Amino acid sequence: LIASLVAGIGSSDGRGGDQPGADEGSGESDGASRAGLTLKRGPIKKPARALQKLVRVYGRDVAMLTDLVRCMVVAQDLRQVGALLVSLDSLSVVGLAGVAPKERQMTSEEMLEINGSNFSGVDERIMRITAISNRFDDSYDDTTSGGYRGSSLSVEVGWTLREGLVSFERVRDWEALNCQRHICEIQVHLASQHHQIHHAGLHSRYVELRNQY
After folding, report:
1. 126: helix, coil or strand?
2. Rounded distance, CA 126 to CA 4, Å?
3. Distance between CA atoms of 138 and 153, rounded to whole angstroms?
4. What are the C-alpha distances in Å from 90 to residues 62, 71, 97?
5. Least confident span in 34-38, 51-55, 66-70
6. Confidence of residue 105 (pLDDT cuts 50, 70, 90)
């Protein structure tokens, strides 16, 4: 799904060319860059790191654990970041909007009222944005991150198994279809900072600092 968004932005932009490869331990690139955007599929979160977060952050509540599945999109500039976020928004509802109980599906008018002017075929949206961390915002104090800026989105997806194949379902059908669900993470980075951080060893220093707390 995210690969198709990257490809779509690329076809409307007209730029191309491979960019720096995947960072150490972050997973595999999709093998191509479109319009300067590169998709990197992250590895499944390791059990040791998942247990760390459960103890340090979530008070041992397993239900709070998210982003076992994650990916990263590396963009060349903020214009591309904006185009990607607009595309993600077009496929998503925000917060609890659109999740209807089994006995009552929400009407299009109700979903329009909740999602406001961003409404566009909301009946077909297949992701739910549950949280956004926007370090690109001018008001963000980047002294807390050593000058680093980026964005991450927590997006919930729901799926069913049909003849052994995974089928991602519309948000409004999750309850009725008794879907399996998980909140994944989409990281968005600028190529200039991403290359410096992951190829100058700064990410490993961040991990060392994180593990002290």
Report:
1. coil
2. 14
3. 18
4. 31, 19, 14
5. 34-38
6. very low
| Predicted confidence (pLDDT) per residue in 59-83, tens digit | 999 888 888 999 999 999 999 999 9
Task: Please state, in angstroms and rounded to a whole number, the distance separating the CA atoms of residues 156 and 47.
Answer: 21
Report the predicted TM-score, pTM, of the whole model to 2 decimal places: 0.72
Residue with tokens 């100058």: 200
Residues 6+ apart with CB under 8 A from 34: 6, 7, 9, 10, 11, 13, 16
141: confidence class by pLDDT, cuts 50, 70, 90: confident
As separate numbers, helices (DSSP H) first and strands (DSSP E) second, the chain gives 6, 8
Crossing angle of helices 2-13 and 78-90, in 10° steps, is 130
Q: Sort residue 143 into left (φ over 0), alpha (ψ -120 to 50) or beta.
A: alpha
Output helix, strand, coil percentages for the chain, rounded to the nearest 5.
Answer: 35, 25, 35
CA distance 150 to 131: 14
**CA–CA separation, 156 vs 141, rounded Å?**
28
Q: Rg (Cα) of the chain, in Å, rounded? A: 18
